[in-house]
Design brief:
By secondary structure, the protein is α+β, with helices and mostly antiparallel strands. The protein has 17 helices and six strands.
Amino acid sequence: MANELNIALAKSGLTVTAQRYQSGAAVGSAISCPETGSTGFYSGNMTGTAGTYQVAFISASANVGSGSIVWDGSAEIVPSTLTQANVQSALTSQGLTSARAGNLENLDTTVSSRLAPSGTLATVTTLTNSPNVPSAAAIASQVRTELATELARVDAAVSTRLASSAYTAASTAVQNAAAVRTELATELARVDVATSTRLATSGYTAPSAAPTAAQNASAVRTELGTELSRIDATTSSRLASSAYSAAPTTAQIATAVEGSLLNEADGQAVLNAIVGAIGNTNLSEVSLVAAVRADLERVGGKIDSIPTTAAPTAAANATAVWSAATKEITGGTVTTLTNSPSVPSAASIASATRTELAVELARVDAAVSTRLASSAYTAPANSDITAIKAKTDLLNPDRLANVATTAIVGNLIAQANS
């Protein structure tokens, strides 16, 4: 025989198998029960040794039906084919001894013809005491085992899930696009002119390499030219040391005066002048001296009454020269200018220089060695800048309307504008 295992289901297209059980334990492997056409009726061929089996029909790990079958090892035992031999064979397969199975011969009449304990015919209302039918607890346990995967998915009360009344439908493409535009309002507002109006590549001048230390120094000297020229004008106008000559001593002055007065030419000139004044007459030395004295005394008074003082010393001459309000040295050697009232000290010159250079020196606010070295300088990637410019030139206000931060948002905006 064939197709002993049958079940009718309300759904077509399922994959159904039949699993045999005895005393709540699975027996053998599952039996495939293919569908007959598209009717929702599934059948399978029973296999195994003789015995009474409970059959569970399973689809997608779920129990979709159950039943029982009495099997003699090759065919199903149905009432019309029930014989003592096949019943004994079935009972023997369930663990009954041959002797006990032979006791069936004692059933020589129907049980229903016998007197029931209450005086009425007995009616079987449960199979729980039958050794071949599993108990309700065993069936429930097996069902739970079979449904373990599905039941594991129900890990919370259904009432804790979102109710239909609390569900909010997803926004439409138009609503999404409007929300995106609102979020991008600040960024889009920054694109307030066409990109083509910005600086073109042809108008860009790439920065040159960082200047060298020599170039920096040269630039500093150029910037300081005006201030340095002021210092030069001030110091160059002062008397050079090589042009200074020490003041002559009183002895040197006296010698020079005496030499000039006793010079023959000068002496003759004096005599000629005297002769011219008194007339060309023969004069004795005494008369000449007397005449000269008389002439001098007419202006300065008696020569004998003229007070005489000693010639000043060199130190006195020097003090007199340096204490004068106006100094002008025409000779000698200057060894220092620190005491000269007309020449500022080194400290005052430095202070004045710093004041003059305040603006320029304020720009040198860090050591030059802390600036970027030429070896560390990386020239701009002009080719990349050109490529970026080529891309940005393609942007305009119309195209920006379809620009978004992600592909998804871009698609939503495009759908909203379509």
